[in-house]
Amino acid sequence: MIKTHFDVLLIGSGAAATAVAIRLLQFTSKPISVVAVERYPQRRNGGMAYGGPGTTWSNIYNIQAGRLSMFREDVDDFLNWANHETDRKGWPDQWAQMTFTVSGPAPRTIYTDYLATRLSQAVQEAPEGSVYREEVGSVFSVVPTDDGDWNIVRIRVQEGTGEAFDRKLYARHVVIATGNEFRSLSFTEHCREHPSFIRLQYSQDGFARMRQVRADDTVVIIGSALSGYDAALTLYKDLGHRGPVYMLSRHGTPLQCYPKDHRHAVVSVRRPPFLDKGYRGVDELIDDVRMEFEYLCTWLARERPEIPAEVYSERILKAWEPFIPELVSLVPPLSLRHLLQEYNTVISNMRVGVMADTFGAVIDSDLSLLTAHIKEIVPNDRDGLTVHYETSDGPQSIDADLVISNLNRETDYALVKNQVWRNLIDNQELATPEKSTGRGVEVGPCGELVSASGKRSRRIYTVGLPREGDEIARNGRLGAFAFNIATLKNHSIVAALRIVSHLEAGADGLPEDTELSPKALRSDSGREEEDNHLYALFDKAVALKIHSLSSRRRLEKRQIENELLAAQRQLAEISKGSSTVLEKWLYHVAALVTHEAMKRMTDVSVTPLELRHRLGLDSAAQQDEKVGAG
After folding, report:
1. Per-residue CA distances from 56 to 52, 226, 501 (Å)
2. How far apart are the first and last CA of the chain?
3. Of the candidate ranges 30-34, 35-39, 365-369, 527-531, the one whose mean pLDDT is the lowest
């Protein structure tokens, strides 16, 4: 009998969906059934940019290998996998002989293997009876049942004969991880189907076209973000291209090169003075931000001389994250959307740099970065394309043999063409485009969809790119950090933990507006020493919960959970009011502990290395080693 009912259905199986699947299987203490429905099987575990068919060994992450672990609480996991676990058979010599280090480079093409390995291990270590399945198909609607217990998910499946047929799957919870939504640009109207125009360089078709490039061809790359650098690297290092390459960018902001042995760190800066001025207009805000940025660069040079100047912008934009939500609330939505659209690449290129290997190879190639506004791209009589653009010197044009576009992401979900989103937004009104930034959709703190009427879903979630606007407005994450690996880690934690809590019945026993604060744990006597005792017990329970959630071994998790249940029961017995039923209050205590564990595990105010120490997992790991040795 074909299984049609699942606890969780994932729409997509790229990096975000895989991370959620791993966390669901890791967090649950009861058997769970998960199905991932993917339209493009070649994108499993990574999507296009995380190791798709158009990603080569020359495409290097723009962050260090030490920041690539998908587990925030286990910062060295990717390094351990790359250095000690993976089979390097078939790797190029450069990487086969590499010892991966915290500050060193890593090729993007191996990340799908890393995620696939961790997913396989999560399936093996999940409670007995758990199921993980993958389906090939295109999801076109998600419809909650009237009783609210199930979502009916309609998928279209293509048979080997080419005939398509529709199927229904039923899921208690749905997680939408649709990744990039592509848009059409007005200046590409006359060249979209031209063989010299590449819209998706990471796709199989896009890469096949790129491979046809001749050594002396003139190439135009649109956009100066990392994907543009990837294209330049692939041309130079993989395809032997030596002709001129023109990278066109509206602001001409290049990616900075990370200094040797660079490590991510967090600094504290003063509250930006422009917040207290109120909003006075776009131009005034830009001037104020630029002035404060220049002040902080001078301050860093004086107060923190150990920080290289190349990473000042990274440090400052990270330090501003706690203040960005307040700024978002001050700026009118139309002005905010204009600023984000106009300066997104600038912000992204200031927020992160590139590794020396990437930077060096781009410098060696014949690449020119031009500050230009593209007007149109049209076919010419030499079987190529002519790019018309404008600079400060007036109208210009380039005759190109190949044009690679990197400006393909649609951020406005009122315009995306994906049928799932069109149904959810337009027909069912179960989702709505994000209001303040115009990026992604409105969601709750755990990624729950918010309907047009403002109601937060208890059954449908989204992770990754659809949460971009929320990450900016809620957490101050700017540029690619609104949706990159670091953010996907947190999305996977909060969505999976919320779903598992619902499935295990604890959270379902609480009203949505329940205040999940440790302050709810107060003794009837009101005496300070008794409250302090309660808070100490609470901290112990939270530490055990974090240790349990972080554990990836079934046996170890069981042992921790026994101790956790005992701690939560003790806490409930001491803190419950005289008229409260113990078992009901135990649900509340468990929800409080889970919520606090989630907050601590997703804290972005510190680096993952500092986070691990704060969570007490260093000492927990040492204790595990002692137990194992004994």
Report:
1. 9, 14, 40
2. 47
3. 527-531
Give the range among 124-128, 204-208, 382-386, 409-413 with minimum mean pLDDT. 204-208
b (16+ CB within 10 A) / e for 232-242: bbbbbbebebe
Residue range 261-283, pLDDT digits in tens = 888 889 999 999 999 999 999 99
Spatial CB neighbours of 597, under 8 Å, sequence gap ≥ 6: 497, 542, 545, 546, 549
514 with 611, same domain: the answer is: yes
Token pair listed for 493: 């934690």
Would you tell me how many other CB atoms lie within 10 Å of the CB of residue 90? 6
Query: 455 with 480, same domain?
Result: yes
Residue 580: helix, strand or coil by DSSP?
coil
Sign of CA dihedral 499, 501, 507, 513: negative
Do 27 and 561 touch, CB atoms closer than 8 A? no
Rounded-to-integer distance, Cα 131 and Cα 117, Å? 17
pTM listed for this prediction: 0.92
pLDDT score of 83 more than 70? yes
pLDDT-above-70 percentage for the chain: 92
Q: Do β-strands 33-38 and 131-136 pair in parallel, antiparallel, or remain unpaired?
A: parallel
pLDDT of the residue at 362: 76
Q: DSSP class of residue 127?
A: P
Could you tell me if 604 and 490 are in contact, meaning their C-beta atoms sit under 8 angstroms apart?
yes
Closest C-alpha to 126, from 551, 580, 628, 573: 551
Which residues constitute the domain of residue 227? 186-255+354-405
Residues 415 and 346 placed together within one structural domain of the fold: no
Q: Are residues 391 and 248 both part of a single domain?
A: yes
Number of residues that make up the chain: 630
In a domain, 618, yes or no: yes
pLDDT of the residue at 465 = 93
Query: Structural domain tally of the chain?
Result: 4
Residue 162: the pLDDT is 62
The pLDDT confidence band at residue 511, using thresholds 50, 70 and 90, is low
Please, what is the Cα angle at 470 between 602 and 415, to 5 degrees? 140
Task: Give every CB contact of residue 339 below 8 A, 6+ residues apart in sequence.
Answer: 282, 285, 286, 331
pLDDT of residue 27: 97
Q: Provide the token pair at 169.
A: 């799957």
Same domain flag for 360 and 220: yes
Q: Are strands 164-176 and 456-462 parallel, antiparallel or unpaired?
A: parallel
Domain contains 92 = no
The Cα-based distances of 173 to 37, 215, 449, 499, 500 in angstroms read 14, 51, 12, 7, 10
**Angle of the 528-550 helix axis to the 582-601 helix axis, nearest 10:** 60
397/374 Cα distance (integer angstroms): 9
Give the DSSP letter string of 513-524.
T----GGG---T
By three-state DSSP, how is residue 335 classified? helix
- Cβ 590 vs Cβ 582: under 8 Å: no
Q: Domain holding 226: CATH number?
A: 3.50.50.60
Helix (H) or strand (E) run with residue 450 in it = strand 448-450
Structure tokens at 596: 């606090």
**Sign of CA pseudo-dihedral 466, 323, 599, 551:** positive
Q: Give the 3-state secondary structure of residue 476.
A: coil
CB 232, CB 58: distance < 8 Å: no
Backbone angles phi, psi at 185, to 5 degrees: -100, 140
> Could you give the dihedral angle defined by the CA atoms of residues 578, 580, 582 and 584, in that order, rounded to the nearest 10 degrees?
-170
Question: Bridge partners of 107?
Answer: 60
- Integer CA distances (angstroms), 539 to 28, 521, 599, in order: 21, 12, 13
